[in-house]
Write a structure and sequence with these properties.
- This protein is an alpha/beta fold and about 400 residues long.
- It has a single domain, classed as Spore Coat Polysaccharide Biosynthesis Protein SpsA, Chain A (Alpha-Beta Complex), CATH 3.90.550.
- The chain is built from 9 helices and 14 strands.
- A hairpin with a 7-residue loop joins strand 10 and strand 11.
């Protein structure tokens, strides 16, 4: 007779699973106790290193008939710089506000330890700013040789200019970094009030284009004053809800009426800045104030900014033509995003932000080729990258 086998008692699985899991939970909890608090005791993430030379990419807008077409760095459309016979012959002065922020005299030949090299030249911080200013003047000399440049600056600045078409005009004020955009409006008002006195004593007159110094004028701008003969001012707009108007390009008719209307306009912008936007970033307050003044008097303008077509309107008694940034203040977008190329009728390229190296590289390239259209291809193919200054 077979002997019965002893029955083995089954061990419940759930208690066994929990028994095995407890040491793991304990170990994780100990690690958590010793882990540093979020954001503490950890080194800050390293900032990505920006390229110290041009990075060429595809030329956006290829295949579109209204955009610059490039084959390598050769332009298939010849755009920019009107022929000598097609210049508008309008007298135009470009006006910019510029100062330096160091005890060293600007342009004294010294190169600091933070120097960067562009082409055959090395630049410290001051030298970089001066190189941008000289490049701004040089592009104007090429595209509008009959024009001159007036640099409004701090009387205490040790700034000196050696280019013949540019002159310094010291205007008292607070030119500190945090106050520079506010001071720029004050300097514009003081300059225009001077011109308002002078306009009575001269038979001929100059129109004025108030602009940032990091732009390249690549075609004659006199047609603005011929095409819109009844307008006192010109502003540039873009389809941007937060900052639809860019303060880096403002044109003013050089008649008594045009200058006086511009003075009143800037006084309103200054008042709005002082009352509403002093806490805004020092690089944004003037543009916010500019938009506020326009919206207060001409709210219908904001519905037209998405159409990229010039239009006119009245702002507190001043006749204003609104010009699309895509033509008169063109800036390639940094990094990713929609980018439709460079319009064939572009007049001004604005090297905002980290595009300053690109401005110097573009001028060097133009000097080596004397072909502005090819230079625009270089700008177009390099414009997405954030460079080292």
């Amino acid at each position: 007779m077979a002997t019965p086998r002893p029955r083995i008692r089954a061990i419940p699985l759930r208690p066994l699973f929990l028994l095995l899991l407890v040491p793991l939970i304990y170990s994780v909890s100990r690690l958590h106790l010793w882990a540093p608090e979020r954001g503490l005791c950890l080194p800050p993430p390293a900032a990505p290193k920006r390229p110290d030379r041009l990075v060429l990419g595809p030329a956006a807008g290829q295949g579109r008939p209204d955009r610059l077409q490039c084959l390598g760095l050769k332009a298939l459309n010849k755009i920019g710089i009107s022929s000598a016979g097609n210049y508008s012959r309008e007298h135009i002065s470009f006006v910019t506000v510029f100062t330096t922020y160091s005890s060293e005299p600007a342009g004294d030949g010294k190169v600091s330890s933070d120097a960067v090299t562009v082409g055959n030249h090395s630049y410290g911080k001051i030298e970089r700013s001066m190189a941008i200013l000289y490049t701004f003047i040089s592009f104007i000399q090429v595209s509008m040789p009959r024009s001159n440049v007036i640099i409004l600056t701090d009387p205490n600045s040790k700034l000196s200019i050696t280019q013949g078409s540019a002159t310094l005009l010291p205007i008292d004020g607070n030119y500190s970094r945090g106050n520079l955009m506010l001071q720029r409006i004050k300097s514009y008002i003081a300059f225009l009030e001077q011109k308002l006195v002078e306009v009575e004593r001269v038979e001929d007159f100059n129109h004025f284009v108030l602009t940032d110094s990091d732009i390249a004028v690549v075609d004659d701008l006199g047609h603005i004053f011929k095409k819109y003969p009844h307008c006192h001012l010109a502003l540039t707009f873009r389809n941007n809800k937060g900052q639809p108007l860019n303060s880096g390009f403002i044109a003013i008719r050089g008649t008594r009426d045009g200058i006086s209307k511009a003075v009143e306009f800037f006084k309103q912008v200054l008042e709005a800045y002082s009352l509403k936007y002093m806490k805004a970033s020092h690089m944004l307050g003037d543009q916010l104030a500019l938009a506020w003044v326009v919206k207060s008097h001409l709210p219908s303008a904001f519905g037209k900014f998405s159409k990229h077509e010039a239009f006119t309107g009245e702002v507190n008694g001043a006749s204003v033509v609104f010009l699309p940034c895509a033509i008169y203040n063109w800036t390639p977008p940094e990094g990713a995003g929609q980018f439709h190329g460079m319009p064939l009728d572009v007049k001004v390229v604005h090297f905002k932000g980290s595009r300053k190296r690109l401005m110097l590289e573009a001028w060097n390239f133009y000097n080596s080729t004397s072909m502005l259209s090819d230079t625009l291809c270089l700008i177009l193919k390099s414009g997405r990258t954030k460079y080292d200054f």
